[in-house]
């Protein structure tokens, strides 16, 4: 009941704050202007993520009895959101942002005392306990998830939809386990808080003006999701196994790791922004942004459903992990050759069309 009330409050506060923040977007330079890499039209207000954060923050403050862990989470998330908003307005260097993420990850993990305790029985030889490495692995996971959701935010609706898929799956897992009321409230609350943003982002009536989430929003979502995953997968009283978490955010995670590997192979900095992410590839292959959104979200839903089925039917963790590693290997292989494959298809199509025309004439 507390979770339902908190979620409702989060959604309502997010809607109100979206309306209130819009007039200030231009004044505080919180607008995204097109450039060589950013191909949208006009200056778009970057207030979607801020409204979701305000919604969750107020919803939690009013609706939930706060534990020290969740208080530290909200404090770190506030700093991250302010940092993201400053970056949205004035562009902060990627190195400084990475440094700030490490510090915030460390404050979250050491301050709350909560960290990833094990990887589970990933290779079938018994549970891999992390012991003293738990906090360090957790900080890496915080940085990983925070950047993964930032990187996927490149076409309308994508970051919002993939976040909703992960958050609603988490909410389902928390709802069927005992002792995870706060996790349920945060996952449902953030889902509700994202709805006004997502509707405006996709210009679903009554929203007419398009908005973006901004780095403030995408980093906050990744940060919240990894916190929920750490909360949900302790050694005692877990709501799910660690490997299940991987499937819930499979696409953003795999896209980030694969693009880092590709950049490193080319001798580039892994922090070099480009237009080589999965959504860019779909669009260069000729899909519209809406088609790319539908296809990628569908695949993300399949992955999350596979993770949930694995959890509910207790498919061995090593099987789930081996399947994940195979998906990663396939993804990396296909995307490394995507232009050659597409050129091959195109040549195939044009040869077929030419020969059909010849037959007709
Ligand atoms: C730079 C860029 O790309 N930019 C984009 C972007 O542009 P934008 O303008 O928005 O942004 P900027 O350009 O300004 O750039 C922002 C960039 C920065 C701030 C700098 C930082 C950027 C980086 C690239 C650095 C990232 C650094 C890292 C340290 C990340 C690496 C970390 C990891 C891979 C995490 C590893 C840790 C784990 C524990 C893994 C699990 C991870 C989780 C997140 C989740 C879950 C938690 C659990 C409870 C589950 C744990 C369970 C397990 C079983 C764990 C064990 C599993 C593993 C170790 C597997 C993980 C590994 C894989 C997935 C690999 C494959 C696996 C196998 C082979 C098995 O956006 C623009 C728009 O799109 C774009 O144009 C631009 O380019
Ligand atoms: O909902 C969205 C979100 C982003 N975009 C486009 O992607 C870039 C990404 O910006 P970053 O600052 O690199 O994160 C953004 O400028 C838009 O051009 C979008 O179209 N829709």
TrEMBL record:
GO MF annotation terms: glycosyltransferase activity; magnesium ion binding; manganese ion binding; UDP-N-acetylglucosamine-undecaprenyl-phosphate N-acetylglucosaminephosphotransferase activity
Matching Pfam families: Glycos_transf_4 (PF00953)
Cofactor(s) the record lists: Mn(2+); Mg(2+)
Cell compartments where the protein resides: Cell inner membrane; Cell membrane
Signal peptide: none
Primary enzyme class: transferase
Matching InterPro entries: ECA_WecA-rel, Glycosyl_transferase_4, PNAcMuramoyl-5peptid_Trfase_CS
GO cellular component: Gram-negative-bacterium-type cell wall; plasma membrane
Topology with respect to the bilayer: Multi-pass membrane protein
Catalytic activity: di-trans,octa-cis-undecaprenyl phosphate + UDP-N-acetyl-alpha-D-glucosamine = N-acetyl-alpha-D-glucosaminyl-di-trans,octa-cis-undecaprenyl diphosphate + UMP
Positions bound to Mg(2+): 150, 215
NCBIfam families: ECA_wecA
Name listed for the protein in its UniProt record: Undecaprenyl-phosphate alpha-N-acetylglucosaminyl 1-phosphate transferase
Biological source species: Alcanivorax profundi
Lineage: Bacteria, Pseudomonadati, Pseudomonadota, Gammaproteobacteria, Oceanospirillales
Gene (UniProt): wecA
């Amino acid at each position: 009941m507390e979770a339902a009330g908190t979620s409702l409050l989060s959604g309502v506060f997010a809607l109100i704050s979206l309306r209130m923040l819009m007039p200030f977007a231009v004044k505080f330079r919180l607008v995204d202007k097109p450039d060589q890499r950013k191909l949208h039209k006009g200056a778009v207000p970057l207030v979607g993520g801020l409204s979701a954060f305000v919604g969750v923050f107020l919803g939690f403050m009013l609706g939930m009895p706060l534990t020290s862990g969740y208080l530290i989470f909200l404090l770190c998330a506030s700093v991250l959101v302010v940092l993201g908003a400053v970056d949205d307005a004035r562009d902060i260097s990627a190195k400084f942002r990475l440094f700030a993420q490490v510090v915030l990850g460390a404050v979250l993990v050491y301050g709350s005392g909560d960290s990833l305790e094990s990887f589970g029985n990933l290779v079938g030889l018994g549970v891999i306990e992390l012991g003293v490495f738990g906090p360090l692995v957790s900080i890496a996971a915080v940085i990983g998830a925070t950047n993964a959701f930032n990187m996927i935010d490149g076409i309308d609706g994508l970051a919002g939809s993939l976040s909703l898929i992960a958050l609603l799956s988490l909410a389902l897992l928390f709802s069927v386990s005992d002792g995870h009321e706060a996790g349920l409230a945060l996952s449902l609350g953030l889902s509700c808080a994202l709805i006004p943003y997502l509707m405006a982002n996709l210009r679903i009536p009554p929203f007419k003006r398009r908005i973006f989430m901004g780095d403030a929003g995408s980093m906050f979502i990744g940060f919240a999701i990894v916190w929920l995953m750490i909360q949900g997968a302790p050694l005692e009283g877990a709501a799910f196994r660690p490997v299940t978490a991987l499937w819930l955010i499979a696409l953003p995670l795999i896209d980030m790791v694969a693009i880092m590997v590709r950049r490193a192979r080319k001798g580039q900095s892994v922090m070099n922004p480009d237009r080589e992410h999965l959504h860019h590839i779909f669009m260069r292959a000729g899909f519209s942004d809406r088609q790319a959104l539908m296809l990628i979200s569908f695949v993300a839903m399949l992955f999350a459903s596979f993770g949930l089925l694995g959890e509910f039917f207790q498919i061995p963790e090593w099987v789930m992990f081996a399947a994940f590693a195979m998906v990663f290997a396939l993804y990396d292989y296909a995307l490394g050759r995507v232009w050659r494959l597409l050129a091959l298809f195109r040549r195939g199509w044009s040869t077929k069309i030419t020969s059909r025309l010849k037959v007709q004439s």
